[in-house]
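Design review, sub-item: ligand-bound model
Attendees: FS, YL, KQ
YL presented the inputs for the 2'-monophosphoadenosine-5'-diphosphate complex:
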Amino acid sequence: MIDHYAVIGHPIEHSKSPQIHAAFARQTGEHLEYGRILGRLDDFAEDVRHFVAEGGRGLNVTVPFKEQAWQLLADRSDRAEAAGAVNTILVLDGGLLRGDNTDGVGLVRDLTVNHGFDFAGKRVLLLGAGGAARGVLRPLLDAGPAALVVANRTTSKALDLAGHAGAAVQGCGLEDLSGRCGADGPFDLIINATSSGLDGQVPVLPDDCLGAGGWVYDLLYGAVPTPFCRWGREHGAEKVLDGLGMLVEQAAESFLLWRGVRPDTAPVIAMLRGG
Ligand code: ATR
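KQ shared the predicted structure:
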């Protein structure tokens, strides 16, 4: 019998996960099928139960269900716990479910393994304080930057998120960055985890925020450069990256959890970029 996996979200048609996991399966010789499920907004839990009852072996969870999945599963990994969200469900022997989160590690692997970013000694700015920012905060901290600042349009949310992460993370409002860049020096890496790009916007940042040789990373991706990637180019970023690499890396980490094999992501990223 072939093992079944799927991604569940709402909407779901746009999801690239089936294409990514099919490529991983071909590459590694793993025998599996990976589909997509349009989750019901009012009955996510039942949709998960149904998939498992039919013999499903694992799920990826995407917008808007990641927090609901966290609530649904009592057994969660430390990184899911820290993220407050689950993007990967493992079906264990006996049908028990375990929640994990591979988003943050996917971001860090894209930066470090794929692009050679070294966090040591670097000042990192994370923009946003919603679910996306929370999902990547702990793995970013674990990567060992010299400083990690969370800045958000609504200051209180940044303070709250940083407060939960411990003394190593500072929180502030976007408008506080002007003074901060002057006092502590500019940032070596700015990561955009806001949803501003969906409205064609960028967070308002001081012009001197990005240091010489600094990188920018947008968690969003698209067929054309995102507004924040354009901001990075205009402000002289040495490297401008969108979230497609992170998408493939988080998928690879899920595949590893399920199958015990780590796929090679480079050809899959190239395929999705049309290369
Ligand atoms: P997600 O799950 O994608 O993180 P969210 O929880 O709704 O979505 O959070 C959206 C984030 O993008 C928030 O940090 C939001 O800032 P506020 O907390 O001030 O609302 C941020 N955001 C959205 N549009 C923005 C904009 N135009 N400029 C700056 N930040 C923006």
